[in-house]
Specification:
alpha/beta, Hypothetical protein af1432, 3 domains, five-stranded mixed beta sheet, elongated, membrane
C-alpha cells in the first residue's frame, strides 16, 4: 500500500518595522490551509538612529526572533520559504550587517522589497482572504510605512507606499510617550502632508469597500469593539471619538482601553493619528478589517510562483514598451545569452535558475537607457532598472538587473559593483560575461541567424569557438570581439577566441 502524498507546506516571514510575523500553510487542492502563525514584537524601527543606522540592540532583537522562527522551519526546502523585509531594512544603511548575521541563523534568503512591491503583496494577501467586493481600497499602517492600494479582483491598479508608520511617528512626535493635542495634531498634519500628492488620484478612482490590514488597524478595531461597537467597523465618527478619548491622557502608559494590549500602547496614539489622516485625506466613511496582509500575499504567490513569474513578465514587457526598446534586437540578445549560459551552467541549482531568469530579463531590458541618450546608455539603463517601480521584483533583483546592464559594454570597473546580500558577486560574474558576449555577437543588429557558437568556461577563463572562416566574413564583429578581449584582460579575465 502506497503512502499518501503529504501536502506541500510553505512558510512566509514578514520582517516588519514593529513586529516580525511568520505564517505556515499547507497547500490542499487549490487552497491554502493555515496551520500556524507566529508573531514577535521586535520594534526594529525604534533602533534607527539619526544617521539611519540600526543599533546593535535592535539588530539583536531581530536576530533572536529569526532564530526562533528557524526552529519551526527545520526541514523546509528553500523554494517553500519566502522572507520579506520592509521599511526599516529598506532605510537602514547597515542593513547588510543584519542580513549577514541572519544568514548564520536562518538558511533562507531575506528579500528587501520596495514599498510598491510591499503594497502589491499586501493587496494580494487581502484579496485572497476577503470575499470579492468589487473595487476596493486597502490601507496597511505598519511600523515604518503605510501602503495604500486600489484594485479590482486580484489586480492592483494604484499602489503607493508612504514613509509614515506607528513606530517611526511615535519616536518622532510622541517622545517618551507624551500625549498632547499639539502632538496628535502635528502627527496627523504630517501624515496628511504625505498623502497630499496622491489623495486626488485615489478619490477620483474611487472604491466600493475600504479595507484595513495589519496590527495598527487591527488594534483600533479591537478597541472600538471594546467600546461596544460589536460590528468592528471603523467609521470616521468612531475614529474621531477615539482620537478625542486619547487626548484625555497625558502619557501612552495611561491609555486604558478595553482590547488594547500593553505592548501596543506605546505606538497606539501615532497609529490613530495616521489613520485619522488617511480617513480625512481620502474622505473615507467606513473601513472593515482583513486578517490577510503581506505574509499571506507571499504565501499565495509562492504556489509554483506562477503569479510571481507572471507579474514579472508583465513588468518587463511593459517596461520594454514604455522605453521604446527595439524588441527584435532585445530578443536576439536574450536568445544568444540563454544559449551561452546553458553551456556555462548545464546543471544549475535553485539560485542559478533564478539568476538565469534575471539574465533573460536583463537581456530583454539592456537597452532601456537608449531612450535617454546613446552615450553612456548602459549607465542610463542601470539607473532605470535600479530605481524604477518594478512590480514582482525585490530590491536585490533590481540591483542584479541594474548591475548586468551597467556592465554590458565598455570597461569593466568591477570595483563599482554594489553590495549584495542574497547573491554573491561570484554568481554575477558569469552572467555579466554572458550578457557582454551576447551584446557583442549581436552588435550588427542583423536578422541573419548567428552561426553555431560554443563556449567553454573555466572560472575566469572562457573559450569562444566560432565556425572556421567566420572572421573573413565578419571583420567588424571580429574587431568588436578583440576589443572585448582587451576589456576582459584589464579586469583579470581571459577570453580566448578560436575557430572551430
Amino acid at each position: 500500500m502506497t503512502e499518501p502524498v503529504r501536502p506541500r507546506e510553505v512558510a512566509a516571514i514578514d520582517i516588519g518595522s514593529n513586529s516580525f510575523h511568520m505564517v505556515v500553510a499547507r497547500i490542499v487542492g487549490q487552497s491554502l490551509q493555515i496551520i500556524s502563525r507566529h508573531k514577535q514584537r521586535v520594534h526594529l524601527a525604534s533602533g534607527l538612529d539619526e544617521h539611519q543606522n540600526l543599533d546593535q540592540a535592535a539588530i539583536q532583537r531581530g536576530l533572536n526572533c529569526l532564530a526562533m522562527f528557524a526552529e519551526r522551519l527545520q526541514g523546509f526546502e528553500p523554494e517553500n520559504v519566502r522572507i520579506a523585509a520592509t521599511y526599516t531594512l529598506r532605510q537602514a544603511n547597515n542593513a547588510h550587517v543584519f542580513l549577514k548575521r541572519a544568514e548564520a541563523l536562518i538558511p533562507y534568503p531575506i528579500e528587501i522589497i520596495p514599498g510598491t512591491e510591499e503594497a502589491r503583496l499586501i493587496y494580494l494577501g487581502v484579496t485572497h482572504t476577503q470575499p470579492d467586493s468589487g473595487q476596493k481600497l486597502i490601507v496597511d499602517i505598519g511600523g515604518g510605512s503605510t501602503e495604500l492600494v486600489i484594485g479590482d479582483g486580484f489586480t492592483p491598479q494604484l499602489a503607493y507606499s508612504k514613509h509614515m508608520g506607528c513606530v517611526s511617528y511615535n519616536k518622532h512626535y510622541f517622545s517618551k510617550g507624551k500625549i498632547s493635542s499639539k502632538n496628535m495634531a502635528t502627527a496627523q498634519l504630517a501624515a496628511q502632508q504625505k498623502l497630499e500628492s496622491i489623495a486626488s488620484k485615489y478619490t477620483s478612482k474611487g472604491w466600493q469597500t475600504a479595507i484595513g490590514s495589519s496590527g495598527t488597524i487591527k488594534a483600533i478595531r479591537e478597541v472600538l469593539i471594546g467600546q461596544g461597537h460589536s460590528d468592528g467597523v471603523i467609521t470616521a465618527k468612531r475614529l474621531q471619538q477615539l482620537y478625542d478619548a486619547i487626548l484625555k491622557v497625558k502619557n501612552s502608559d495611561d491609555l486604558d482601553f478595553v482590547g488594547l494590549s500593553d505592548d501596543r500602547k506605546p505606538v497606539f496614539a501615532a497609529g490613530v493619528a495616521i489613520l485619522n489622516a488617511v480617513f480625512s485625506s481620502l474622505n473615507i466613511d467606513e473601513m472593515i478589517f482583513s486578517d490577510g496582509a503581506l505574509r499571506e500575499g507571499l504565501l499565495y504567490e509562492m504556489e509554483e510562483r506562477f503569479r510571481h513569474s507572471d507579474i514579472r513578465v508583465r513588468t518587463a514587457t511593459s517596461m520594454a514598451k514604455q522605453y521604446n526598446v527595439d524588441i527584435a534586437q532585445a530578443n536576439r540578445v536574450k536568445t544568444t545569452a540563454e544559449l551561452l549560459y546553458n553551456q556555462v551552467e548545464p546543471q544549475p541549482g535553485l539560485t542559478k535558475v533564478e539568476l538565469a531568469t534575471l539574465l533573460s530579463w536583463g537581456a530583454l531590458l539592456h537597452e532601456v537607457g537608449l531612450s535617454i541618450s546613446y552615450p553612456g546608455f548602459h549607465r542610463h539603463s542601470a539607473y532605470l532598472l535600479r530605481f524604477s517601480t518594478m512590480p514582482g521584483f525585490n530590491l536585490e533583483q533590481q540591483t542584479v538587473l541594474a548591475t548586468l546592464v551597467r556592465f554590458q559594454r565598455k570597461s569593466l570597473k568591477l570595483e563599482e559593483m554594489p553590495e549584495l546580500s542574497i547573491y554573491k558577486r561570484k554568481h554575477l560574474y558569469p552572467l555579466i560575461r554572458t550578457l557582454r558576449l551576447a551584446v557583442a555577437l549581436n552588435g550588427q543588429r542583423s536578422d541573419d541567424p548567428l552561426p553555431v557558437i560554443m563556449v567553454d568556461a573555466d572560472k575566469e577563463k572562457w573559450q569562444l569557438t566560432l565556425p572556421e572562416g567566420w572572421e573573413e566574413n565578419n571583420r567588424l564583429l571580429a574587431a568588436d570581439l578583440r576589443q572585448e578581449q582587451e576589456y576582459w584582460r584589464k579586469a583579470g579575465w581571459e577570453l580566448d577566441l578560436s575557430p572551430n
